[in-house]
Amino acid sequence: MTVPRRRTASEQVSVALLDAAETVLDRDGAAAVTVRAVAREAGVAPMGVYNRFSSKDGLLAALAIRAFDDLAAAIDVGPEGGPADRLHRACRGYRRFALSHPARYTLIFDVGSPAADPASPVTARGREVFAVLVDMVRGLTLRRGLDPLHAAQALWNGQHGAVTLELAGVVQTPDAAATFDQTIDVVIRGLQTPRA
């Protein structure tokens, strides 16, 4: 029997501060995530936040990595079903994450995101999550000459665009969920070798 690893007191403090930062982010948006606001939410002195994350940028980077972790969990559909079915379910998970946590979604994908820095650990985590999508796309019978990386980017473009429009409230159809499913279906069919 494996004994579960216990978090150290230091890890518990970091988790509690990130929880507080996430509360501020979800409630007030990324611009409101400051060292002072997080310290106030957590009930600690600002120095406690600085000691864990060095700066506001360090705090936002840790929040963005956590958001990518949550997104990874949302698109993890397991091995059941065929490749296209798995992709559909993963894309629905992506949409659910974005709609349930719009501030977290915006933090990782909006202009000025910590993920925009190629040297950032946030960018590395984002690439790891994208690699899950690439692996799922590899299961499709892709059109001749279509690289799985480019196919996955095309699929991401479609789902991200659809979700971003929905979050902005500018979808022109009456059922955004049905339109999202149709968008994903069109993209997945377009990536695959046409059936004879």
Q: CATH architecture of the largest domain, please? A: Orthogonal Bundle
Radius of gyration based on Cα positions? 19 Å
CATH topology of the largest domain: Tetracycline Repressor, domain 2
Full CATH superfamily name of the largest domain:
Tetracycline Repressor, domain 2
Q: How many β strands by DSSP? A: 0
CATH class of the largest domain: Mainly Alpha
Question: How would a crystallographer describe the biggest sheet?
Answer: none
Strand content: under 5%
Q: How do the helices and strands follow one another from N- to C-terminus? A: HHHHHHHHH
Principal-axes geometry comes out as elongated
Total of domains: 2
Class inferred from helices and paired strands = mainly alpha
Average per-residue pLDDT, rounded, comes to 93
Q: What is the straight-line distance between the termini?
A: 53 Å
Helix content: 55-70%
Query: Spans with pLDDT under 50 lasting ≥5 residues?
Result: none
* Number of helical segments with 4 or more residues: 9
Describe this structure in words.
The protein is mostly helical and 196 residues long. It folds into two domains: 1-54, Arc Repressor Mutant, subunit A; 64-191, Orthogonal Bundle (Tetracycline Repressor, domain 2). 70% of the residues lie in helices and 0% in strands. The protein has helices at residues 9-28, 35-42, 46-53, 56-75, 83-100, 102-109, 121-138, 148-168, 176-191. Helix 1 crosses helix 2 (35-42), helix 5 (83-100) packs parallel to helix 8 and helix 5 packs antiparallel against helix 9 (176-191). The mean pLDDT is 93. Pfam families: TetR_C_33, TetR_N. This is TetR family transcriptional regulator. Keywords: DNA-binding, Transcription, Transcription regulation. Residues 11-71 form the HTH tetR-type domain.
